[in-house]
Design a protein that fits this description.
mainly alpha
Length: about 150
């Protein structure tokens, strides 16, 4: 058991970075170089930890099989995102800050759901309810692409 814990480098790097930034936070925030260094260091540690979380979720997904594996992967990604948004909201003192990262994801999900619905209607042959109207795929895909790309 102790050997498995020793292999968790991302956990130790995260704790070490937390301790270092707790000690040196005031001296780093006084200069532009300190701010840029802090941003790059925290960003790289968060990315490293997120990749490690995804790796562990992938191992659990292989262990538990298909329906539970997908659920584990989804929940780990959502948990990491919720933690990052919560940290941003706690330190920015702005209650509307959570809308900035969540709204584009909601819009993309809604547009993707509409796209799948229109494809299912067209490809499964449910167009016999309105024979005089034909569904053309190209304008829909072009409009959804531009809505997603420019949001």
């Amino acid at each position: 058991m102790l050997e498995k814990i020793r292999r968790e480098y991302a956990l130790f790097v995260s704790i070490f970075t937390l301790v270092l930034f707790e000690i040196f936070q005031h001296s780093l925030s006084k200069s532009l170089f300190g701010n840029i260094f802090g941003l790059l260091a925290i960003f790289s540690v968060v990315i490293y930890s997120a990749i490690n979380v995804a790796h562990h979720a992938e191992l659990l997904a292989k262990k538990f099989g298909e329906p539970y594996g997908t659920l584990i992967l989804t929940m780990s990604a959502v948990t990491v995102e919720v933690m990052i948004i919560s940290i941003m909201m706690l330190h920015a003192h702005n209650p509307y800050l959570a809308e900035i990262p969540i709204y584009p994801g909601y819009v993309r999900f809604s547009l993707g759901l509409l796209w799948v619905l229109f494809l299912a209607i067209n490809w499964l042959g449910f167009t016999h309810f309105w024979e005089e109207q034909k569904f053309y795929f190209w304008p829909l895909s072009k409009s959804i692409f531009f809505l997603i790309a420019f949001r």
